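Sequence in, structure out.
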Amino acid sequence: MTNANTNPTAKYYVCEGSADAGVTKVTPTNEPEKALQIAQASTEKVHFVSTVNPLADEVDDET
């Protein structure tokens, strides 16, 4: 049974960086639980999960 609240094609981006440099690393995943695990394990001062890749104009990870 599929959970109606989740989109099976959704992509999650774990964004990491600093207040000075901004987002410097983006890790894509299709699993929200995995995204949360990566974010919780981050040692960067700034880290969050997004459904939009903030570096999309700079990095093409859709291929």
